[in-house]
Design a protein that fits this description.
Elements (H helix, E strand, L loop, with lengths): L2 H13 L21 H10 L20 H6 L9 H20 L11 E6 L6 H12 L7 E5 L7 H4 L8 H6 L10 E2 L5 E4 L8 H6 L2 H12 L4 E5 L7 H6 L5 E7 L5 H10 L6 E6 L5 H6 L12 E3 L2 E3 L3 E6 L3
Parallel strand pairs: 1-5, 1-6, 2-4, 2-5, 6-7, 7-10
Antiparallel strand pairs: 3-4, 8-9
Helix pairs in contact: 2-9, 4-5
């Protein structure tokens, strides 16, 4: 390159406008050894005070949460049950948040990612994920990234009107795509959303690969003191769910009262990564005499569960079991 060409390049570089820190950086087509995922995330975060400001702009507007539609489709409780459900969800979130904070007397979670799953489809895990996220962002200075990880049968993505938009699958498939480009800001303060994205038949391999924990770690860092809630596929229905428990700080299993067989729950628990604390929510249970006495403020009880797998007791890593109608 001649001296004149070098001088022209320097002049062009000085004239180029500064990058907007609120816009996601463009993917860089470079060899992995030059721009690994971790270093790419670090460079982006260093340019913005609020890392979650780096959200996708291809909607040209925030995602509008249609609460009436969510109630009509069963993703949220009806108006008549909203106060009771809100109180019950609070009883679920507090132990999870205490574990993330490492509060005294609580086994600390290894990170701020809560994976919500179930043994079988139709037990209420998506309902629990969404309402848990909405409850957490009501706390001051708390933020939540809600991830639709049920990539085979997305529930949250169509409910929030993001069918066809790039999401988790796209970020897993394209290693040059930063997770910020598929993270959408909503009109609920503090709530962000990652849709499932385009379905790919290789999704189980993507979940098991090294890319998935990198993306989840990036979200965990960017949310700061907040929480990443991962709406996972059912454990007994897909391979992705079992793999996903490896990167979760806590696993919340939703069990439908009087419908899910005990053996199915035990089989599901046996698939969870051995280092992940497990909590359980008993969903759709009938009100007891005690709950009727205390009205909407009665939630249930919390206790240690002991499960048996291959004649060996699994203890210590099991979290509290919540009982309610959430």
């Amino acid at each position: 390159m001649s001296i004149v060409e070098r001088a022209l390049q320097k002049a062009k570089a000085k004239a180029a406008p500064a990058a907007d820190p609120l816009e996601p950086s463009q993917p860089v087509a470079a060899a992995p050894e030059q721009f690994p995922e971790e270093s790419r995330v670090s460079r982006i975060e260093s340019r913005a005070e609020d890392p979650l400001a780096l959200t996708s702009r291809d909607l040209k507007a925030m995602v509008q949460i249609d609460f009436d539609h969510l109630r009509a489709t069963g993703r949220m409780a009806t108006a008549a049950l909203s106060d009771q459900t809100e109180e019950e969800i609070r009883r679920i979130k507090w132990p999870l948040l205490r574990a993330i904070e490492g509060s005294e007397g609580v086994v600390p979670a290894r990170n701020n990612l809560v994976l919500v799953t179930s043994a079988l489809p139709g037990e209420g895990k998506t309902f629990t994920s969404l309402n848990l996220a909405l409850s957490i962002v009501r706390d001051r200075e708390m933020r939540v990234v809600l991830v639709d990880g049920d990539v085979a049968r997305p529930g949250l993505t169509p409910s929030l009107g993001l069918d066809g938009r790039p999401g988790l699958n796209d970020a897993l498939e394209d290693e040059t795509r930063d997770i910020s480009t598929v993270t959408y800001q909503t009109d609920v303060e503090g709530l962000f959303f990652v849709p499932a994205g385009k379905w790919n038949s290789h999704a189980p391999e993507y979940f098991a690969g090294s890319r998935m924990p990198q993306l989840m770690a990036a979200l965990s860092r960017r949310v700061g003191r907040g929480v990443v809630i991962f709406d996972s596929p059912p454990l007994l229905a897909t391979n992705e769910a079992q793999v996903a428990t490896r990167f979760a700080g806590q696993v919340l299993i939703v069990v439908r009262a009087e419908e899910t067989e005990q053996q199915a729950v035990l089989d599901a628990i046996a698939l969870v990564d051995k280092d992940a604390p497990i909590s359980a929510v008993l969903n759709n249970c009938k009100p007891s005499m005690l709950s009727r006495y205390y009205g909407q403020y009665y939630y249930g009880y919390s206790s240690k569960y002991k499960y048996r797998r291959d004649e060996n007791e699994i203890q210590g890593r099991r979290g509290s079991t919540a009982k309610g109608s959430a």
